[in-house]
Structure formats: C-alpha cells, structure tokens
Amino acid sequence: MKLLSSRQSWMVISVLSVCLLAACTSRPRGPIPVEDRVAGQSTSRPVQRVQPQAATNSARTTAPVATSSPISMGPAMAGSENAGKPGYYSVRPGDTLTKIALDHGQAWRDIAKWNGLENPNMIEVDQVLRVAPPLMEAAANRQTKPVMAQNQVPPSSATNSTPTPTATSAATSNTPSASPPANASDDGMSFAWPHPGPVLAGFDEAKNKGLDFAGKAGDPVLAAGDGKVVYAGSGLRGYGNLVILKHNNTYLTAYAHNQTLLVKEDQNVTKGQRIADMGSSDSDRVKLHFEIRKQGKPVDPAKLLPARP
Predict the structure, then answer these.
(1) Which CATH code of 3.40.190.10, 3.40.630.30, 3.90.550.10, 2.70.70.10 fits the domain covering 199-302?
(2) Where are the domains of the chain?
C-alpha cells in the first residue's frame, strides 16, 4: 500500500474539515423552531412551511361564501305597517286567497279588490292583506240623524199642543213582536239541511269543522239558504270540488267533495236550490262535507239547523 505524502495528507484533512463545517452550519429540513417568550420564559414551537402554490390552492377552496357577508335587507313589504291591526291579516306559509277568504268570512274576489291584487295567485308570506271592507269603519262612524225618545215632541209643536196617545200607537203597543224561528241565528238567519242523508261525523272544532253526510254519487246538494256564490272550484286542498255561499255579512256556508258543480261564482241562489252533485273529490269516500262559518269561524251546524222530522 502506497503511503500519502505529507502534502497530500494535509489536503485530505482540509477537505474533510470543510465538509464537516458545512454539515454543522446547514439548516435542518424539518420545521424551524420559533422562540416564544411568555412571562420571561422561552419556549420553542415548530412552524410548518407552506409551499406558495399549496397556499394559493387552499385559499381558493376555503374562501367564504356569500352568506358570510352582511345581508342587506330590502325595503319593507307594502302594508307591513298594518300588521296586527283589526281587519288585516299577515299571510302564512301554505295560505291561498281562497283559504284566507273562507277563514275571514269574505269573498276572495273582494279581498283581491281591497288589496289591489292583479294576480290573486301571487301572494307572499308575511304580506299584510286587508280582510275587512275598507268602508266598514267609515260606516260605523257615520253620523246618523238623532232619534227622538219615546213620546218626545218636536220643538216646533211643543209649545202649541200636548202629545196624546193615538189609537194607532195603542194598537201597536198591544201587538206582540214577531219572534225568530227556532234554531235561527242571532241575526235572524235560518238554514235548511243541505242533504237528507244520515250524518257520518258531527262537528269537532279541532278535527271536523262541520257535518259529514252519507249518500250516493250524484245525489243533490242543496243550498242551506239564500245567498251568493263566492267560490266554485277545487283550489282549496282537502275540500275537493267546493262551493261557498255568502248569505250576509256574518254567515258563509261551504259544500265540499262534490262530483259536479252546478253553479258559478257571483250567481245568486235560493234556499233549497240544487247547487252540486255529491261526490268523493279529495275524499276517501262519497260524502258531503258541510260547514257554517260565522265571520269566518266554523260553528256547529246542528245548532243552527231545524230539527229533522
């Protein structure tokens, strides 16, 4: 084996020294310890290096969506200042104009007119609708001619004569006042049975808002009183082919699940008139569902119908 000269040995030692010094001073490949100083103490924690391209991609995938930015509220819905006032109603999810009209004892066409609805099918949740006639308050506050008390004499004749009872007034005072018919409503409205068949289900304010009558398909459905057709159609879920009559400012009657409707909206009908044929539309069997509503609230028809023979 050939021995190195002293000069060659010195050169090898120098190269090894340089390599060792470079290895000691080079950075570690792992996370760089970062010194934290808290309350006079020194601790080290690693900081993860992130490549520039990776950081860019991460920012793209975790960018906040539009919902994280403040949402600007639009202008208040027209009529919202009337919310909660008597004679107004705030639309709820699932409402239709027909349902709102039935629940408030009105014709849907009237509600559409009072609120300027060009398309009655376009109503929005929280929209505030007038459900009472606009002139009702004006009519209630209208000044009427004062009525004189009984036996009061007009001022023009008070100084000339003394009032004396006449034969007419005496006869009138002895005439008994006419009494309303049995089972009449408090405003004198009387109803007739809409169908002669047996009652399947009675009134239940929570489960059944009227009476259900059994019968055969095609049996006549009769108007329970004089009135005007304010709805004839199938747009109210759960009622099928439906007729609604308005009898006065207080009462409506509804006739549901019909097979055929024989009347049209705005048509005047008389008590006992055939308005539909019994059917099973939107029902599991042939029947007539009959309701009486007082100012939109369902009441027990049995209390307003006459006794059956």
Answers:
(1) 2.70.70.10
(2) 81-134, 199-302
Rounded to whole angstroms, the Cα distance separating 252 from 223 reads 11
What is the biggest distance separating any 2 CA atoms in the chain, rounded to whole angstroms? 168
Tokens at residue 246, please? 């308005």
Q: 81-134 and 199-302: same fold?
A: no
- Mean pLDDT, consecutive 10-residue stretches, the chain (309 aa), reads 59 65 54 48 48 40 36 59 90 92 92 91 92 67 42 41 42 40 66 96 91 97 97 94 96 97 97 98 96 95 90
pLDDT at 155: 41
Q: What pLDDT is attached to residue 134?
A: 85
CATH level 3 topology of 81-134: Membrane-bound Lytic Murein Transglycosylase D; Chain A (3.10.350)
Tokens of 269: 């009908």
Per DSSP, helices labelled H in the chain are: 6-25, 52-61, 97-103, 108-114, 136-141, 155-158, 167-174
What is the pTM assigned to this prediction? 0.60
* Cβ(45)–Cβ(34) below 8 Å: yes
Helix (H, G, I), strand (E, B) or coil at 42: strand
- Cβ–Cβ < 8 Å for 31, 23: no
pLDDT value for 3? 53
SS3 256: strand
Nearest by Cα to 217 from 284, 278, 274: 278
